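Summary for the steering committee. One of the milestones for this cycle was to obtain a three-dimensional model of the protein with zinc ion bound, which we needed before selecting residues for the alanine scan. The sequence and ligand used are listed below.
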Amino acid sequence: MIYRRTLRREVACTGIGLHSGKPVRLRLLPAPAEHGVRFARTDVGAEIPATLAHIGGQDHATTLSHDGVSIGTVEHLLAALSGLGVDDVRVEVDGPEVPVLDGSAAPFVILLHEAGLRPLAVPRLLLRVVAPVEVRHGTKGARLVPADHFEVAYSIGFDHPLLRHQALSLRITPRNFTEAIAPARTFGFLREVEMLRKSGLALGGSLENAVVIGETGVLNNKLRFEDEFVRHKVLDAVGDLALLGRPLLGRLEATRAGHALHAAVAQKLLATPGACELVAPERAPVVGVRAKDLEGPVESPAY
Ligand SMILES: [Zn+2]
C-alpha cells in the first residue's frame, strides 16, 4: 500500500515574482490527507485550490484564480511537488506570484528535501489513463495515452537556428525529476523580452532566472543541459498536469505544446467518459471517476 504524503515540517523562502518584479515570501506547510495542494494568499486572506477548475490564465505562465483572487507562476512549484510525490500541502504566499527563484524547479526541490516527506494514513490513489485523449492546435498537439508509469515524451521546434528540434522521453520518478528535469530553466527569445515588458510582463526577468536566446546563441554563460529547453517543457508539463489533483498513471505525448495545451488535454481526460479511472497502485481499479468527482475528497476505498 502506498500512502498520501505531506511535508514533515514547515519550510520557507523569499524571492521575486517573474512578472511583477516584486519580492514574495513563500511558506510550505504540512496539511491533512486529501487537503491537496492549496495556495493561501496571506496578504488578502484567500485560498486557491491547485486544480484545473481554478485555472485563471495561461499567458506565459499558469495562473490560478478563485473568487477574484489569483496566484501566478505556479507551475514550477507544482512540478516539484508532483515530481517528488507530495500530495497534501498548504502553500502560503504574501503576494500575487510564486517567486521565480532561478527559473527552474531545483530550488523548490531543495526546499522539499529540507522539509522531508511524511506519509498520511490515507491510500494514495492514482488517476490512470484508460483510453487516449488528444488536443491539437495547428502543428501543436498533446495526447494522453495509457502507460504503466507516469511518462512524458516531448518534442519542440522553433524557427531559430539554436532550437530547430529537441526531443526527450522519460519516466517521471522522484530521482529522474530531481536530476534530469528540475534544474532546467525557463527560456525566452531576446526578441520577445521587449514585447513582454511593454505589456507589463517579465519585469522581474533577468539572466539570473531565465535562459535568454539571442540571434546567435544564449546570452547566459552556459546551459545546464545541452537540451535544457525541452527539459524545461517537460517540467512545465509535469506542473500543469499536477492540476489534475491526483498523481497520473499514463504517458503525455506533446509536440510544440505549452501551458494551454497541457491543461486542455488534462481537462479532456476528465471530461471524456471512460478515459480515466482512479486506481490504487498495483491493484485493480477501486472506483470509476468522472470530472465532477475529482473536485471533492474521494471516499477511502474498501480493500
Ligand atoms: Zn516554465
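Key point for the committee: The chain has a mean pLDDT of 89.
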